[in-house]
């Protein structure tokens, strides 16, 4: 998923207090001329779930029209019939996801129709998962940067096919950023602190400081993975929105189980069954992301036997590794107060260090007149973290203290920006477990941030570098602010209450404690369906036939500084690979 710090949207919540509000997915319309194959799930005509029929059978059923699912569907539809089932709506006419200046609003919105479904990990860190066509590319900060070459080699991808797949994405939706004055100050400060050389504008992952691509155009409009569907074959492609897949259907009569279709629910609550053709090459392909894919595999009976039986889920295949190996890149942030008016900018500049951390930045605050105002519940300024406490235990004193703490955040924080420090390739590992059988509910997710000392060591190095960046004369000259002490800079973050982790008195004196107490997400979580444990090297689910996974749940590490470029490329890459494996030279690509 792309990305800018969670603190930003938490701060912005101070400005949001609304009770009677319109739906948060926007108007239920889309560009029908360009996407005639997109329609509501209720339009699907299927046989009764209790009967068998070959009507509405597809060569490929893709569960999740996200960052990988959209390019995958567009590619496969060149030769085969493809059905995409997306649980959310379209991004095209939703102003909360179709303007750069509204970036934070969807992340802060926890209404049932939001394009972003929030969850809180058991670690106490706020997080989000996409619920909209285009997936994480529709709700992120837009930064586009390719994976480091070592990642491509490690996962065993064909370098030539990778180098064909990246440009296919880039030519359609990637842009060069306008490069704001704030981002120039970030660049100069990074170079001043030794993150060199300056590599200019490039998509490539290279050590030093660089300016990357963006999916936002010069007008601030995002171009998400959903737009890649336009390059599909509209005669063979069907995309259903508000289609929530309940489970994968298996034929268990033979020696090996095989996927034969899926059961999904439309926006009116009616269930439908979509089936695969009888061709042995047809597949259900999971592209629901690092949360949705392992969750749905377990709900469908593939996972740890004991866990499934506790919830009375019929076991199709016992695999203790489903949901294991969950990793989230920990991020910590630092406010950059400013006395100069600063325009909004998301991620444009990145410092790729040789010590295992990435330094990025964002600035300003914006909101378009067209944005949809939504009630934010747990994320609101009045309730916030207090909503995790039973209502009877919320004293007036505690509530007032919380509100005061929010109001005490310096107004400069809204006018200034943020420096973000992200740990690359964390060694701390967690897991995902079902808490019930409702696919709409979040599973319990644990990331175990900083449980491995190596991650904490790198966080400390990253924070020290971030402090140097903020204290650089290039930054202080630009913000027209005095050089702040380390303790004052850290204290701004501690006061913001960016997570549910208890704070300690020495937060601003011990950088180690600061890292632990103020950790947030950058939404680059991955894992849960690792290669060799849940899927094969070509991403087929081990132990069953006609079921594959194509998304970030297969990753052992997040590729490069920001994963969305590689996840989109993966969708295109795997589409081409499947076509070539199935058709050979007849694929024509």
UniProtKB/TrEMBL annotation:
One of its GO terms (biological process) is cell-cell signaling. The keyword Disulfide bond applies. GO terms for molecular function: flavin adenine dinucleotide binding; oxidoreductase activity, acting on CH-OH group of donors. Its cofactor is FAD. It comes from the Eukaryota. Keywords: Disulfide bond, FAD, Flavoprotein, Signal. Residues 289-303 form the Glucose-methanol-choline oxidoreductase N-terminal domain. Disulfide bonds join 459-515. Pfam families: GMC_oxred_C, GMC_oxred_N. Residues 1-26 form the signal peptide. SUPFAM superfamilies: FAD-linked reductases, C-terminal domain, FAD/NAD(P)-binding domain. FAD binds at residues 86-87, 132, 245, 523-524, 552, 563-564. Belongs to the GMC oxidoreductase family. This is Protein HOTHEAD. The lineage of its organism: Eukaryota, Viridiplantae, Streptophyta, Embryophyta, Tracheophyta.
